[in-house]
Structure formats: structure tokens, C-alpha cells
Amino acid sequence: MRFELEYLQEHGVTRLQVYGVLRLEAYRPMIVATLADMQAHHTSCLVMDLRHASLGMSMQETASLPEINQALGVSLEYKVAIVITEANPKVNGVRLYEILAAHRGYDHKLFTRYPAALLWFIDRELY
Q1: pTM of the complete model beyond 0.85
Q2: Cβ-based neighbours of 69, under 8 Å, separated by 6 or more
């Protein structure tokens, strides 16, 4: 698994692109690096692009992610758009994460189209 971080200055958003199989042991260091990048760019908005990734986490591991995020210092003020293809076999796991994260107070939303995720940051009243 590898990931790339990019600051999209025109939108004030950090983009995290994930490639390969994302497993729980790689999740923590990836989030720590992402938080550092977001702090460096003074942004509270993240697009987590999973369109080129396979999710190698069980439902139980997926369900633990909101708690892991909290322990890593992911702020409730951060807005996270998660982009995954509808055809991904783990899309229901991401939907589960979205629900569990909302119960923890996070504003993390699932999208199946990248442009819609960016639009969510630009025009939140549409959502």
C-alpha cells in the first residue's frame, strides 16, 4: 500500500490518494502523516480518495476506525469526504464507517464520485 498527499490550494483541501491494499496496520501511520499535512496547510478539509485502493479490513476493524481516529487526534472539526467506487466490494464497510463516525460526532461523508466530494466542500448547502 502507498499513499500520496496533495494540497489543493484552489479548494483549501488536502487530498489523500491511497493505492494498493489498505490494511489496519498501515492506517495509523497514514492518518498521522495526513494530519501533519493538514496542519502544515492550515486546512480542516480532507478528500480521502480510495478509488484505486482495495480495503483489506474486516468489518470489526472498520468499526474501530472512529475510535482510532479519536485516539490519533482527528478533530471533530475536520470535514472528510471519502471517495470510493460503487463497484468496490467493501463499499458497505465504508458506509458502516460513515454511520459510526457520525455517531461519534465526525462529519465524514461517503461519495462515489470525486467531483461531488469537492462540491461538498464548496457548496455544503446542497447536502
Answers
A1: yes
A2: 31, 101, 106
